[in-house]
Amino acid sequence: MSVTERIFPADEKALPEVIAFTEQELEKAECPMKSVMQITVAIEEVFVNIARYA
């Protein structure tokens, strides 16, 4: 399993790109859809908090 890294600006405007990247990587890893949805929600919460308060 390889690791893919990408850096995004801490700006809420980048959220769609963050979500798209996350979903692409999870699809490549053949992650079940239920898990993709749960991880996406968690990523969104963490990213928005970072963008607003960092």
Question: What does this entry look like structurally?
Answer:
The model has no long low-confidence stretch (mean pLDDT 95). By secondary structure, this protein is an all-alpha fold. The protein has one domain. The chain contains two helices and no strands. It is globular, with a radius of gyration of 11 Å. It is 65% helix and 0% strand.
Could you list some keywords that capture this structure?
single chain; 54 residues; mainly alpha
Summarize the structure.
With 54 residues, this protein is mainly α. It is 65% helix and 0% strand.
Topology, pairings included?
Blueprint: H1 15-28, H2 33-53
Rg computed from alpha carbons, rounded to a whole number of angstroms: 11 Å
Total number of helices? 2
User: Structural class, judged by helices and strands?
Assistant: mainly alpha
Average pLDDT confidence is: 95
| Record field, number of beta strands | 0
Total domains, how many? 1
What is the general shape?
globular
